Known about the structure:
4 helices
Amino acid sequence: MPKLYSQAVTPQxxxxxxxxxxxxxxxxxxxxxVAPFISQAPLARMWYLASFTHDGDQGLNTQLSDxxxxxxxxxxNTTTLAAEINKVLSAYGIIANRPxx
Length: 101
């Protein structure tokens, strides 16, 4: 199914979609648009930020998005950002800065 979707969207935008299965990655390693994403897939980690979650003004996603936006807009130091992210995550019982598996 991932290959069919990728083939379907290629004519409209000039490149396909990275497959959702890592075992299909080798078939895209020569695609100049998608290959950089495929090569990074083994290093990818889950994160608590996603678009269009509609989690309200004080939801986890909104709080994290606001922190990133404020940091960019005010050109703040990312060390401060890390501490603020840890504070938000800990309020949700998420252990911040744990090592990757």
